[in-house]
Structure formats: C-alpha cells, structure tokens
C-alpha cells in the first residue's frame, strides 16, 4: 500500500495563501522599478543642471559690452506707426533693477535713443521736463527721433511748455528726425523760428503739418534752419509755407499744397537725387506751351505719385524718369476744368522715357478706367 502525504497535495486553502503572498511581491517589484526610473530621471536632470551651471557665469563677470547688448535686446519696439511708450518704460525698468544694472544702463546711450513724444497741449509739472532732460542726457552723444504735438490755443507760451521747449532746443543738433503733427499753424511757425541759427547736424527726416493758412504774420523764408541741415534727406511739408529746403540733397519728398509749373520746374531742377516724390500740381494746361522746350531729367526717381485737380497731362511732357518703377496718378472726382480724356500720345511718350516702369496705379474715383 502506498502512503500519500496530505502535505504533498495543495488544497484549495493553500493555493489561496500562495496567491495572497505573490501579488504583494509583484506590486512591490513594480513600485521599486518605478522608483528606480524616477531616480534615474532625477539624476539625469541633475547632471544637465550641473552642466548648465558649469557653463553659466554670474552677471557681474560678463563683459560690460555684452551685458549692455543684452539690456538693449530687452527693449520692446512698437509694430505700428502710432507712438507708444513701451521702449521708455523698458529703459527705465532695467535701469532700476539694482545699482549695477543702473550703472550699465545709464552708461549705454543706445538704450535711450528710442523716439520721444513731447506734448505741449496741457499744463505739466517739473517732473515731465526733468524726465525729458534725463532721457536726452542719457542718449548723448547719439541722435534721437523727436515728435512734437499739442501746439494749440497758445499752449506753447506756458511756463511748463517753456521748460520743454528749452530742453528740446538744447539738443537740436542731435535730432535724427523731427515730426510736428496736429499742431496749430502759428505754434508750429513759432517753433520753427526758435530754430533760427541752430545747427541741425543729425537731422535726416522732417515732417511738418500746415505752417501757413494765410493768417500767419511769421516769415519763415529767411529764418528756416533746414537749408543748412547737412544730412536731411526726407521731407514732408506744405509748399504754401514757402520754407526753403536743401533740394539738391533730398531723396524722398512729400509736398502738399498745389505746385505751379514754374514752382515744379524750379524745385525739381535742383532735386537731382530724388528717389521718391509725391506732389500736387495745378495750372499746367493753361501755362505751358503745347510742346515744352526743356525736358526735366530725374535720373534717380523710382516712385512718383502725382495728384492734379484738373486733367493736366502736359505735366508728363516735361518730365523724363528713366529709372521710374512705380507711377501713381490721382485725379479727384470733383475736379473741374478737364475733359476727362486720357491723352494716350502724351502718356505713351512718357512711358518711352521711363522704360523700366512696372507698376501703374490710377485713382480717379471711378472717373477713369485703370489701364
């Protein structure tokens, strides 16, 4: 007889006990593996941070020139043509982080060369003039763009405006551009007169709104400093003001106010370097002879925009622009005195003198068809 031990055959109770033991062991193994993976990831991250730390250096050990460039890169610029003060806020912000940052920021003129807007329209306290002075001093000796607004209701005669005007004129030689917008004609003419005798050595761009509406008693033809501005290249102003300009050196001109044939020929015969021009002409159909005796050569003109209140195609007879690429002709719908007839021979002859023209735009408010 064979004896069979009862311990050799696992019963239902024994199998249940074995399962209750192996399951926790498997869960423990999984947790151990997870912990090991986390430890490995943390060790890898720590090693990366150590390598970064080894390659990093304290700010104070950076070359001053490099740190200054870093500060300049933090200054925001506006994407629109509308003035905002983001760059001013940023410049003052980085200069107030700590003493070291302030020392570097105040010693970096380029950080303070963003455009500044001076508003004369309201009463201001001394803090505004002091802030303007600080900005201009920190930007020295570099040039700065200046925008002036708010000359109306004789606001330029107040004490606070006098302080602002004094600070601006003090650095007139460092203006890179001067823009005067939304300003009463008398106030603007007064400001231009304040520039008489001052050097505008850095001025490259000039934008003036209407300086005369027939009521101003200020003569700007002799007091204007602009003819002696050696770097002036771009202007936008009203021809009715009579302000003289250094025509021979200008490359970009936007002239408002109607220009007579004599005025056009006189001005543009001097503008041998003009590249872009926008003008309003009048009186050509009654003044010029049928065939102009002289053709005005503008060899560098690439873009021309012409507005005429009458259909005066004789203007094109006296002009040759061999490098012209774009031509825009604007004839207001309310214009009178013209027949509205497109003079093909005149335009064809002009095209032959401008063989490189690739873009033609005709804006006649539906009066003409585009060709």
From TrEMBL:
Q: Which SUPFAM superfamilies match?
A: F-box domain
Name of the protein this chain belongs to: F-box domain-containing protein
Q: Which stretches make up the F-box domain? A: 61-113
Q: Domain of life of the organism in this record?
A: Eukaryota
Q: Which InterPro entries match?
A: F-box-like_dom_sf, F-box_dom
Tell me the classification of the organism that encodes this protein.
Eukaryota, Fungi, Dikarya, Basidiomycota, Agaricomycotina
* Pfam families to which the protein is assigned, alphabetical: F-box-like
């Amino acid at each position: 007889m064979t004896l069979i031990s009862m311990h050799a055959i696992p019963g239902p109770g024994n199998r249940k006990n074995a399962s209750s033991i192996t399951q926790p062991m498997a869960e423990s193994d999984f947790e151990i593996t997870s912990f090991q993976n986390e430890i490995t990831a943390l060790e890898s991250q720590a090693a990366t941070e150590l390598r970064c730390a080894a390659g990093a250096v304290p700010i104070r050990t950076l070359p001053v020139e490099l740190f200054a460039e870093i500060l300049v890169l933090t200054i925001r610029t506006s994407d629109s043509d509308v003035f905002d003060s983001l760059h001013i806020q940023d410049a003052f912000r980085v200069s107030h982080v700590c003493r070291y940052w302030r020392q570097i920021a105040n010693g970096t003129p380029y950080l303070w060369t963003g455009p500044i807007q001076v508003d004369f329209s309201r009463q201001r306290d001394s803090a505004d003039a002091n802030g303007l002075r600080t900005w201009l001093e920190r930007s020295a000796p570099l040039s700065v763009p200046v925008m002036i607004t708010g000359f109306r209701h004789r606001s330029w005669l107040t004490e606070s405006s006098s302080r602002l005007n004094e600070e601006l004129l003090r650095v007139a030689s460092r203006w890179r551009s001067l823009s005067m917008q939304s300003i009463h004609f008398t106030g603007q003419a007064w400001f231009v007169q304040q520039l008489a005798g001052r050097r505008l050595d850095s001025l490259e761009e000039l934008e003036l709104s209407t300086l005369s509406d027939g009521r101003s008693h200020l003569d700007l033809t002799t007091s204007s400093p602009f003819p002696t501005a050696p770097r002036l290249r771009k202007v936008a102003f009203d021809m009715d003001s009579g302000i003289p300009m250094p025509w021979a050196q200008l490359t970009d001109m936007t002239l408002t106010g109607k220009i007579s044939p004599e005025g056009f020929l006189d001005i543009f015969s001097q503008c041998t370097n003009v590249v872009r021009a926008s003008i309003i002409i009048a009186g050509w159909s009654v003044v010029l002879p049928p065939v102009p005796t002289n053709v005005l050569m503008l060899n560098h003109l690439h873009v021309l925009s012409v507005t005429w209140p009458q259909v005066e195609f004789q203007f094109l007879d006296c002009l040759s622009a061999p490098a012209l690429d774009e031509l825009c002709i604007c004839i207001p719908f309310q214009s009178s005195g013209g027949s509205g007839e497109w003079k093909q021979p005149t335009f064809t002859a002009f095209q032959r003198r401008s063989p490189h023209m690739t873009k033609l735009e005709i804006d006649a408010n539906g009066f003409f068809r585009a060709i």
